[in-house]
Write a structure and sequence with these properties.
With about 300 residues, this protein is of the alpha/beta class. Helix content is about 35%, strand content about 25%. A six-stranded mixed sheet has the order 2-3-1-4-5-6, sandwiched between helices. It has a three-stranded mixed sheet with strand order 7-8-9. Helix 6 (about 190-205) packs antiparallel against helix 8.
Length: about 300
């Protein structure tokens, strides 16, 4: 019965690289947000939808990791993360299993002091520590904030994720669903394709390069008379000429590797064959340019 349904918005916050995107992807049941072991993977607030026909709907906002901003893009990302705290029904704070609270998490704790929504602490990556230690970490966090719930999980292994969903529904308000039952994201296909390419670049490239890359989709079109084949042309934007050389690689090997890995995943998502062509361009200091940030799909008016 529709009057028994619960629906609401849930934001996932945390420092970079604690597993926010991995958690969301596993909860949704398919890949929407890109994942990487490098910081600044998620740059936009990504909205995904979990629907349970009997209980209702959870709309997740996966936010950029909270960090000290070093440029305009960093400021934009922090604003996106902080903005997601305001208009939601439940906050999930994701942390790693440590026996201390670092400076980054202390900043988040400070932000949480002013919120009124239920806050659920998710201690992720419990598969990496012994069980007695988990109880110590839970006790440590209980002393610094009055959490509504604390749930230890392994997003990567899928441990305790049913508990997370059950607990979220416990705190959501009653109300009709916001989206159709078959909706899983509000992200346009072009955005998802550009993020997949960026993810494969993040995986393949050296540490110093990924922070300064963006991906611009130039063309995305089904080929005439071959409706099972899509032509996609994309440009990887970097900040330095030296980075361009690294991204292309010797004899074009690195760019070919990025393209091959991206094409495989894009084909799975679109359920068709893909002809993917990649180029590399240098736009010096684009992360400090409001106009270029906007051109590359990071829209401040959505915050």
């Amino acid at each position: 019965m529709e009057e028994n349904l619960k629906s609401g918005f849930v934001t996932i916050i945390g420092r970079p690289n604690v597993g926010k995107s991995t958690l969301m992807n596993h909860l949704i049941g398919q890949k929407i947000a890109i994942t990487s072991n490098k910081p600044q993977t998620t740059r936009n607030r990504i909205q995904t939808v979990y629907t349970d026909a009997e209980r209702g709907q959870i709309v997740f906002l996966d936010t950029p990791g909270m960090h000290q901003a070093k440029n305009r893009l960093g400021e934009y990302m922090m604003n996106a993360a902080l903005g997601a705290l305001n208009d939601v029904d439940v906050i999930l704070w994701l942390v790693e299993p440590n026996n201390y609270i670092g400076a980054g998490d202390k900043r988040i704790l400070k932000q949480l002091q002013s919120v009124r929504q239920p806050v659920i602490l998710i201690i992720n990556k419990i598969d990496k520590v012994e069980k007695p230690k988990i109880l110590e970490y839970i006790d440590m966090y209980r002393k610094v904030y009055d959490f509504d719930e604390i749930i230890p999980v392994s997003a990567l292994r899928g441990h305790n994720l049913d508990d997370v969903v059950d607990t979220i529904f416990k705190y959501l308000p009653y109300g009709p669903m916001f989206y159709d039952e078959d909706t899983v994201t509000d992200q346009p296909e072009r955005q998802i394709v550009s993020e997949i390419i960026r993810e494969k670049a993040l995986h393949a490239l050296a540490e110093e390069v990924p922070h300064g890359i963006a991906v611009l989709i130039e063309k995305m079109k089904v080929r005439k008379r071959q409706t099972d084949l899509m032509d996609i042309e994309a440009t990887i934007i970097c900040e330095k000429d030296s980075h361009k050389g690294i991204i292309i690689g010797k004899g074009g090997a690195m760019l070919k590797k990025i393209g091959s890995n991206a094409r495989f995943e894009i084909e799975r998502m679109l359920d068709c064959r893909v002809n993917l062509k990649l180029w590399v361009k240098v736009k010096k200091d684009w992360r400090d340019s409001d106009s270029l940030i906007k051109n590359f799909g990071y829209r401040k008016d959505e915050i």
